[in-house]
Amino acid sequence: MSLVNTEVNVNPAKKTAWFLRPFWVWVWILSLCPLALPFLWLSPAFGKWSKWVISFVLILLTYWLVLAVLETYALLQDPEKLKALLWPYLNKDQKELLNFFLEQAL
Q1: What is the pTM of this model?
Q2: Could you tell me which of 74, 36, 81, 71 has the C-alpha nearest to residue 55?
Q3: Which of 30-39 are b and which e, b meaning 16 or more Cβ less than 10 Å from the residue's Cβ?
Q4: Whether the predicted pLDDT of 11 surpasses 60
């Protein structure tokens, strides 16, 4: 099972659009994540199973990124949790700077 079909399209009349070629589909996937799924599914260069696998991975990755953003936002809303998380990794100057910013935020 390969991710890209290796069959050569010998019919020049049925040429694939440039944005559905494998290189560009990967560009769309890496830059647009789940918004690139229509390009993936319309591209004839990918097999049925590889489309399902790539779609599943993209959906999981998007879910994980959304959870990470929500967790980061929640952490930024509670300065004490943020301080508790960062404190062990900071040097003296950084701790003073963090205290200054947290005092300004509160």
Answers
A1: 0.68
A2: 36
A3: eeeeeebbeb
A4: no
